Amino acid sequence: MLEALIDFVFPARCIVCDHRPKQLCGECQLEPRITAVPGFSFPTFTALELEGAAEKVIAGYKDQQLTALEKPLAMVAAKLFLHRDLGRVDAVVTPARNSRNYRKRGFDPAQNLAKRALRIAEIPIPVLPLANSRSRHDQRSLSKAQRAENVHETMTLKVIGLSKVLLFDDVMTTGATIRELARACEQAGVAVAFCCVLAQRNSVN
Ligand SMILES: [Zn+2]
Q: 156 forms bridges with which residues in the sheet?
């Protein structure tokens, strides 16, 4: 009711099709399809290809700070979390914050999405972002080999008392960040149960 009133008084435009009154209209809802991603030493799953509507919604959320787009993305993440048995997972681990992106956005997308997805899925475990142990450059213009080197040994898990965790990130390109999450957990003696990534981008060279 309140939501309908807000849409009426302050109509937005759909990030995908440009129609009013919502930032994501009923016609353009995301259609998650959970698939396994090969190449990791633990099961890894994604639900979206980073193209079309999914790419626009994720860019709208991360780069234009359209926070109304957090809920539909978190609902996809909740589906990913719930499709495996989470019974013995102590926490969801997300990447260390990139300070330049954080200053620009004012929030940490992976952390916020994981928290909201856990609330939607009613899974009472914490979200633990890794700590930065070394600075890294923006990855966007880097090749696959450069990305791996750029992110390697940049993150640390500082929380003690965990035995098994779930890894989460919003977008995966080469998998370098996910490998660093896993390395940091293993270095801290914590096992990776499995990994969920909201969307996968077609690989860079
Ligand atoms: Zn639309």
A: 131
